[in-house]
Model the fold of this input.
Amino acid sequence: MKAVYLTGLREMELRQAPTPNLAEPHDVLLRINTLGVCGSDIHYYTQGKIGSQVVAFPQILGHEFAATVVKVGAEVKSLHPGQRVAIDPLVACGECDQCRAGRKHTCRRQKFLGNPGQLPGALVEYLVMPADCCSLVPDSLSDDEAALVEPLSIGVYAAQMAQLGPGARVGVLGSGPIGLCTLLAARALAQQAAVYATDLVEERLAVARACGAAWTGNPQRENVVAAINRLEPLGLDVVFECAGEQVTLDQGIELLKPGGALLIIGIPEVDRVSFNINLMRRKELRILNVRRQNHCVEHAIELIASGRVDVRPMVTHHFRLEETARAFELVSARSDGIVKAIIRISPAG
Ligand SMILES: [Zn+2]
Ligand SMILES: [Zn+2]
Done:
């Protein structure tokens, strides 16, 4: 089969690889239809690492995808060949204290697709996964939408964690795909939520407006904190930090009302950040870290299938597997108005 390897920093190579065999009774063999390029893939592409996770080249990236079931193991009753699925790319051990507590996303022996030293990624034609990681998608969902279930599930998880009430005033700082998914989930989960979205890239702000943002602002053009304060003089209930930058963490602390919550979803490139502890203390802010998602895949599928969330405005570009290098280059440069890049892997996809 064809596979795309990251062979060095900013170097991708299409190679032949052995097609995997179904060996375990609880596994399924999948044909990958479409794959979304994720910000974390880009970290590995440009830096070769995220924190302590360091790539040993060559490495196959990719974990956001839609697939068709080709074969199922002897013990798999829930899935059949020909069915289409969305994926939870985390394989949990099922036995540790975290798994037993229902926190498989912080499983102590977890393996994540496309993470160094864990599991190979999905920039391939065929992949074997545990059936537990696969969720059926209805025919009404396109392969693009099914590939976006994974990032949307992160937005759903973050919005649930924020416990947004009706009419919540919400900030989304950083309107890349995860910020946009959080915006969509916040609007779907909290009636009449008003979302204030920021980004440095104008095209992303246009997509944020298409996704229902009440207001968008570019910090390169205006003081976004002052602008949001004018519209919301009491401050925001919740800020989702989706950029992984010191400046957006600072903006979040400033924008929140007393008792508000800052949810950190962005992945910083540095190991340490700082907070204005006096401001945080005086407002008694809550700081919550979001690690991927937990049990939100089905909810994300249902939100798209029911029409309550429309992820399609995020998809700006399509590529073939052979064009993966170009897709990664555009996403890392944030050029050509790119928001979500989708790679079509199976010709029928
Ligand atoms: Zn991702
Ligand atoms: Zn575990």
About this structure: Residues 92-96, 98-99, 107-109 surround zinc ion (ligand 2) (CB under 6 Å).
